[in-house]
């Protein structure tokens, strides 16, 4: 009998019963996915998957400190459950003391639905979306466009149990839609993406209309050299840059002088003004439409997470408040090292505080500049300044006197998101967005468009 035939909370309880370690944390992740794919204005594939991953974290006390061992496996059978627990214990006993060791979390009330069956997605999540997508295929074909893309919906029910009595559960839906429109000769391409919890707020007809406009802009081609241009970054591009900034904003690395958030001479830049715009960068597990786990779920330890913090409650956190750096992400261990508050990472990111202006209104107020669609292939060049490089993709447009006058070539860029915040002269209306580059790892974001007067397009790229 496979472990999947048992209820997830029962598997967690059984693993805890089998543990002989000084401490034990068990996480059962029950995952289901549904997806659609299409090409050339026709559906190509669809599918539904189910799976479970079990993670066991054993802690062993010793004279020199507490060690931890972590083992994760999928499709664990009943016969394999005890060997999995023993493997985690053996890993702990074979390891040295864990640097991030802390007492396991206690005192968090049990989730009322801990013993309930896991939530599951199915093809029914596309009940309204799929017919609307089919209608968009017909309109696109009549308009000389070909639509390509995919829609994916994932639901993960996570059950967390610990030897200190925690019994917590969280259901996390995640939906993504990516849609490309191409001209029949493949010389013009436009992209749009959306993040959603249930596909009820996604309108493929509106996306197709948006892409049709962009393909129309691309009928006129204008070549521009590399250089610094006034640039409008749409919310998706802002999200990609600030998510990378968030991943790099760890308290310990900053305190040890390794990042852009390190203060020359020692300490961190917490308390410094990063931008004159009244912008607030924040995370909140209860943010409407972007809800995420209200407690720490750490399957491994790293710069921004500790397995010892599993179950620690999460609360709304301002990383930047009205332009001032307020917090860096920290575990209980790194907070003790740096003297900064315990502020674990949270699974969403919001930037607000800009003007109530749409991207279209910002275009209309532009004398001459570039309008981007999205960024991709983003890589770090220098952690000390958080200098990033990457490419533009699927449409860079020239704006003159408030109108888009044509499509220009793509570019490679070199910029630091921290510097961009400091140089931005305008932020627009905050809206939910899908970060294109990081959509496999991070989807819950809401960002405004940003106007940067001197965005560094360091070289020309020949990509479409």
Task: Report on the architecture of this protein.
- With 464 residues, this protein is of the alpha+beta class.
- It contains nine helices and 20 strands.
- It has helices spanning 8-18, 78-94, 129-142, 204-217, 235-248, 251-255, 332-338, 359-364, 417-423; strands at 23-39, 42-62, 65-74, 146-162, 167-182, 189-196, 221-222, 227-233, 280-283, 317-321, 324-325, 349-352, 368-382, 387-400, 403-408, 410-415, 426-427, 431-433, 445-447, 450-461.
- The strands form three sheets. It has a six-stranded antiparallel beta sheet with strand order 3-2-1-4-5-6.
- It is globular and about 70 Å long.
- The model is unreliable at 1-5 (pLDDT under 50).
- Count up the helices: 9
| Rg calculated over all Cα atoms | 24 Å
Output mean pLDDT.
96
User: Spatial order of the strands in the main sheet?
Assistant: 3-2-1-4-5-6
Uncertain regions: pLDDT < 50 for 5+ in a row? 1-5
Helix share, percent: 10-25%
The CATH H-level homologous superfamily of the largest domain? PmbA/TldD superfamily
Compute the number of structural domains: 2
Biggest beta sheet summary: 6 strands, antiparallel
What is the subunit organization of this protein? single chain
Proportion of residues in extended strands: 35-45%
């Amino acid at each position: 009998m496979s472990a999947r035939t048992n209820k997830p909370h029962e598997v967690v309880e059984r693993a805890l019963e089998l543990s002989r370690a000084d401490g034990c944390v068990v996480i059962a992740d029950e995952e289901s996915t549904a997806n659609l794919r299409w090409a050339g204005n026709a559906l190509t594939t669809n599918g539904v998957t189910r799976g479970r991953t079990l993670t066991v974290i054993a802690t062993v006390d010793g004279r020199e400190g507490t060690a931890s061992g972590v083992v994760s496996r999928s499709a664990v059978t009943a016969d394999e459950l005890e060997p999995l627990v023993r493997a985690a214990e053996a890993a702990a006993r074979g390891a040295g003391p864990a640097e991030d060791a802390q007492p396991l979390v206690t005192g968090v009330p049990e989730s009322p639905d801990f013993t309930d069956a896991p939530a599951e997605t199915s093809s029914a999540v596309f009940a309204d979306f799929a017919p609307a997508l089919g209608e968009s295929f017909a309109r696109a074909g009549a308009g000389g466009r070909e639509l390509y893309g995919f829609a994916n919906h994932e639901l993960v029910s996570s059950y967390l149990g610990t030897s200190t009595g925690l019994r917590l559960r969280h259901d996390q839906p995640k939906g993504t839609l990516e849609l490309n429109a191409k001209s029949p000769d493949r010389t013009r391409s436009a992209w749009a993406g959306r993040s959603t919890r249930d596909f009820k707020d996604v309108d493929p007809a509106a996306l197709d209309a948006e892409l049709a406009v962009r393909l129309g802009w691309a009928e006129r081609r204008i070549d521009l050299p590399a250089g610094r241009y006034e640039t409008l970054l749409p919310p998706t591009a802002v999200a990609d840059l600030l998510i990378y900034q968030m991943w790099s904003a760890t308290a310990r690395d900053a305190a040890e002088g390794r990042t852009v958030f390190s203060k020359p001479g020692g300490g961190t830049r917490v308390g410094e003004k990063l931008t004159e715009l009244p912008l607030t960068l924040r995370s909140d597990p209860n943010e409407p439409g972007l809800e995420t786990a209200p407690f720490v779920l750490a399957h491994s330890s790293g710069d921004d997470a500790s397995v010892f913090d599993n179950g620690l409650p999460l609360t709304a956190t301002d990383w930047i408040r009205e332009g001032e750096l307020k917090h860096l992400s920290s575990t209980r261990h790194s907070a003790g090292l740096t003297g900064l508050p315990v502020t674990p990472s949270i699974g969403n990111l919001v930037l607000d505080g800009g003007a109530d202006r749409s991207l279209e209104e910002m275009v209309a107020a532009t004398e001459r500049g570039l309008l981007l669609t999205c960024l991709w292939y983003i890589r770090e060049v220098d952690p000390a300044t958080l200098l990033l490089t990457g490419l533009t993709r699927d449409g860079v447009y020239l704006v003159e006197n408030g109108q888009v006058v044509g499509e220009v070539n793509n570019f490679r860029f070199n910029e630091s998101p921290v510097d961009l915040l400091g140089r931005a002269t305008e932020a627009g209306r905050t809206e939910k967005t899908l970060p294109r580059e990081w959509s496999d790892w991070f989807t819950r974001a809401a960002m405004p468009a940003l106007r940067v007067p001197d965005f560094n397009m360091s070289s020309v790229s020949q990509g479409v």
